[in-house]
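Write out the bound-state structure for zinc ion.
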Amino acid sequence: MNATISETEMDQAIQSLSSIVSFPSFGTEATDHAPFGEHDLDALKAMLHICETLGFTTYLDPDGYYGYADIGTGDKLLGVICHMDVVPAGNLSDWQTDPFKLTIKDGVLYGRGVQDDKGPTIAALYALKHAMDAGLKLRHQIRFIFETDEETLWRGINKYVKEQRTVDFGIAPDADFPVTYAEKALLQARIIGPGSEDLNIDLQNPFNAVPGAAEYSGPKQGEVKAALQKLNFTFTENDQSITVAGQSVHSMEAPKGTNAVVRLAMALSQVFDAPMLQFIDKGLGQDAYAANVLGDISDTVSGRLTFNLASLTVNKQTSSADIDLRIPVTVDKQAVVDKLSSTLAKFGLTYQQFDYLNPQYVKTDSPLVKTLMAAYQQVTGDKNAEPLVTGGATLARVMPNCVAFGGMLPSVKSYMHQVNEQWQIADMKTTMQIYVAAFTALNSIE
Ligand SMILES: [Zn+2]
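---
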């Protein structure tokens, strides 16, 4: 199999990418048959149209949640799980180009979605086309599945899983090379407790980030300041408030950050009486592994559990805290919840689940992971590469025997979710060559 992608093939792929980048598919108001907004549906339809021109048979969910494109026949179904939605462009004045017009400058593609996930989707699609043009006879049916709600609630892929055939094995081209074989379980929950007579704070932060700052603007600033100083925590002050400094990182890397909300709560617990503050100060502390609350939870496959306390509300009536846990793949979730609940009960607090995603774990000696690792190494020569573990979540976890595979090379700087999202054409070409090798090799696994 000649894996070299020609200039003409690159041009075709980039033209298709240009077509789908033009849709600002970041999820807007639902309309009839477009549950995530017209642009998401238009992007999905454009993608299905591209697949049809390449010889695929397509299906569009009549409710507009997802679509898929099939090619080849065979008993086994190989899935390629992608998404056509993007995050919003962010601050437009920070962009050097129009985010929804694919722009090429000095061999670099610019536009929202070129790395996440429109670019890798097109790379995988045209890699398969290249392999077939070069003579690959498909022994399995191959299905590209297009989600349009990945950046929000995964409603498209969840509807697919309910209604459509489960793939026998699959890849999600929506992460890094080489292969992500284990994704920790993701548990988002809320701790509820009684209020506090004279404290009123409402610190709202997303579950998936360690809070980098936390502000107190109540009347007892002198006492709070003294408590922070005693604890040796950094803060800034102005006339009205005190702001505790932290270091924000993604929740999956919580131990690498510094949680400003936890620090402020520890100081507040010296000044105010509230079971929630007691729990944070005496129970949790600054340990993002939460060993004092849960015991030391880890496994050899995916490492230690991580724990992030994101939001904190305390007022007269009630108190609550939002927490984000990434649980090792072989650990029993219920055991974690039971341990957490019993610790919380000691402080007079209760546990409430908010959202949960199952872990994914495909063994490193499975034919799928071995085949994908070999394809990656064959093209890149990167013999030292090891399969990856993540606390993050990709669409690979929605069906058994699926793994995230590329499309970003380890050398590529991530612009996902950032302004001026970009991808070098040379890197896209290498990614396509890896996918050619992968489709070719996957064709001969049973
Ligand atoms: Zn993505």
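---
The two ends are 20 Å apart (CA to CA).
Residues 7-183+360-442 form a domain with the Aminopeptidase fold (CATH 3.40.630.10).
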